[in-house]
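thread from #wetlab-drylab

HS: before we spend reagent money on co-crystallization trials with zinc ion, can we at least see a predicted complex? here's what I'd submit
DV: go for it
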Amino acid sequence: MNVEEILSKLVSFPVLGGESNLSIIHWIKDYIEPYGIEVHLLPNEEGNKASLHCRIGPDVDGGVILSGHTDVVPVKGQEWTTDPFVLTDKGDGKLYGRGSCDMKGFIACCLAALPDMAKADLKKPIYFAFSYDEEIGCLAGPELARTIKTHYKETPKYAIIGEPSLMKPIVGQKAIYILETYVNGSAGHSSRIKQEVSAIHEAMRLILWLEKKMDQLIEDQRLDDRFHPPHSSIHIGMVQGGIAPNVIADKAYFYWDLRTIPMDDMATIVAEFESYCRSREKELRSIFPEFSIKTIENHPPVPHLDTKADDDVVELIKRISGNSTLDTVSYAAEAGQFANEGFQSAICGPGSIAQAHRADEFIAKEQLQKGMVMMQNLIQELSSEDFN
Ligand SMILES: [Zn+2]
């Protein structure tokens, strides 16, 4: 099968983040195995989802992990002009379909190059690492990265995460954490605002504290010019609370996200926020003993990626992709999770993030071909005695 035929097959599995991906993962497994490669599935606890990993080439230290996710984002509410789960060639040089760009295009390139990988006299191995539930918070990435380190006696050196980057090497990614804060106050007539504790008033105080925290970081020159914007951001995206203008609200909550540059530690920011919450509780419990503020995770934190411009993996990607302009991204991806396990990691894949997650998502055929060229170059690199 050529790369377009494989992509067409992959797009036909409508596996959304959060749903079972066994259909697509078993198809991939069945595709790989006839090349004499041992494929390992890494199921979740319920057994309805699985990541896949395998090694092509010699059992020696070093080599490259090619990482991709098999899930896609929903199409509901989007105005598609084609069937999102049928890869459609409109004759305009683009292939339309959900996941065509994010990021089944990259997986298709991996699979289309597999026959050549299997035939090649590789001196260092190639690993495939395909996950699930990436689109709902990179949930499977950490275990997959960890498993590759523990399952094989030998350890790969590099990881290339094939998110759409127009084949540019992406070396930085902000860490992302999404949280929910719940404030429990006391209800009452609005005239008694000083005798009760309004959950809304307190929620607003917390929100302003968070905004001030962000401004303080900027003022303290905690800036990393590789990123846009160059500072850590804290944003409140949803607030709910109260029932009427003349009733003091006993409940209020807000959802917020924290996107930190590598020099800022999100755990410290959250701990400072928690300590402010505890001080508010202490003060207000004299008025209402059950007053409480609780913050829970909406999504587990996704770590940042902070690959240095002169790291070997960057040199490698520059050579095989033909692109030497480095960039950073603000979306969540599994790259930081692979980096956390000690693999030198960077993002590089076909297609543009501008086309991801929207109606009529597409990948340019020319991008797919560039992805294939990268695979061929990688095979050549890894077949060389000098590769390190
Ligand atoms: Zn993606």
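DV: The longest helix spans residues 199-219.
HS: ok that's useful, forwarding to the group
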